[in-house]
């Protein structure tokens, strides 16, 4: 079963871009309409496919499109959207102060993650059957290194809770205003329909929508890419714990750059160390499916090299 949302994550430098690009290419060649997305600040999709890819969706092949999400641009767009919503809801006397605060907030801690998540949900909607904007059957995400990606995937849970608390506080404030309106005519016109509550409600619904899909094993699979080395194995264990904590379905463990047995005497010692690590990987993660992708004799740049990886992904879902 091919999932609607396929994520490739793991420690930096393990080959996530090569495998996610090969998987996207394989699905597209099988007839599915596929969007390949990079959320890694160090974008490499363009290098992998050997074609120009930017922040606008571009078509690479008959069934394959790609885009590289620009976090800084997403943050500016995100803040501009907030500004457009809020300037009509606050007193004209504080509009300029609000704008200045929002401009500063665009570069504040967490702003890019929130904006990136917003762009991320927009892209997920492009493969959702219930969405009017549906254009693709599968979205393949080439993600940032593990820590950054886990923080991003935690946001629906964390921000959804935060949004619910804000809505509670807003309800309390409006209840007090309704009481006061009985004695103050000027307040009577302000306690009807609450546009701020509507905005908060829409945001919470958006987070809930994303969480439902990210935790649905029929829709989502998070494939972990690692190398047969001690540090990537340890990081994979930590990532697995976090993914399970937030209910995100884990797919396969893709062990990349496995040295072939016929590699020769020079690599024999390193191959021995890899063999021990491969045993450890099988013991720890084998129940979920482990794929081995050999270390190729070339850099993976361009469709021809991606095609060489495709046969090793046959058992991926």
UniProtKB/TrEMBL annotation:
Pfam families reported for this sequence: ArsA_ATPase
GO molecular-function term, one example from the UniProt record: ATP binding
InterPro entries the record matches: ArsA/GET3_ATPase-like, ATPase_ArsA/GET3, P-loop_NTPase
SUPFAM superfamilies in UniProt: P-loop containing nucleoside triphosphate hydrolases
Location of the ArsA/GET3 Anion-transporting ATPase-like domain: 4-310
NCBIfam families linked to this entry: GET3_arsA_TRC40 (TIGR00345)
Family, per entry: Belongs to the arsA ATPase family.
Protein name: Arsenite-activated ATPase ArsA
């Amino acid at each position: 079963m091919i999932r609607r949302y396929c994520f490739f994550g793991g420690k930096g430098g393990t080959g996530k871009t090569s495998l996610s690009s090969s998987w996207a290419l394989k699905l597209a060649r099988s007839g599915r309409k596929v969007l390949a997305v990079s959320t890694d600040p160090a974008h490499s999709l363009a290098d992998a496919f050997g074609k120009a890819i930017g922040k606008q969706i571009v078509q690479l092949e008959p069934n394959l499109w790609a885009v590289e999400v620009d976090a800084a641009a997403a943050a500016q767009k995100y803040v501009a959207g907030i500004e457009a919503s809020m300037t009509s809801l606050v007193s004209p006397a504080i509009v300029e102060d609000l704008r200045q605060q929002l401009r500063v907030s665009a570069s504040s801690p967490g702003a890019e993650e929130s904006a990136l998540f917003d762009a991320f949900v927009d892209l997920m909607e492009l493969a959702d059957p219930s969405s009017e904007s549906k254009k693709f059957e599968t979205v393949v995400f080439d993600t940032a290194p593990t820590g950054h990606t886990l923080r991003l995937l935690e946001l629906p849970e964390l921000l959804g809770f935060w949004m619910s608390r804000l809505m509670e506080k807003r309800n309390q404030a409006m209840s007090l205003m309704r009481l006061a309106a009985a004695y103050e005519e000027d307040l009577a016109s302000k306690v009807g329909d609450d546009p701020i509550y509507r905005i908060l409600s829409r945001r919470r619904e958006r987070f809930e929508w994303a969480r439902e899909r990210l935790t649905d094993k029929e829709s989502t699979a998070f494939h972990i890419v690692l190398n047969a080395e001690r540090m990537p194995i340890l990081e994979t264990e930590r990532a697995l714990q976090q993914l399970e904590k937030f209910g995100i379905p884990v797919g396969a463990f893709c062990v990349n750059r496995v040295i072939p047995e016929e590699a020769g005497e020079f690599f024999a010692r390193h191959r021995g160390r890899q063999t021990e690590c491969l045993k450890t990987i099988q013991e720890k993660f084998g129940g979920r499916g482990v794929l081995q992708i050999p270390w190729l004799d070339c850099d993976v740049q361009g469709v021809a090299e991606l095609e060489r990886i495709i046969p090793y992904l046959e058992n991926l879902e």
